[in-house]
Amino acid sequence: MAVKLIKEHRLSNHRITVPNVTTNTNWDPPQSPWYKVNIDGVVFSSLQATSVGVVVRDHARQVVAAMSKKLWVGLGPLEVEAKAIEEAIDFAWDIGLQDVVFECDSKVLRGALTRANTPSVAIVNVISSCLLRLQNFKSVKLSHVRRQRNKLAHILVQYAKSLENFVTWIEDNPIPIQSALAQDIMTFASY
Question: Which residue segments constitute the domains of the chain, with CATH numbers given?
Answer without folding.
Answer: 27-185 (3.30.420.10)
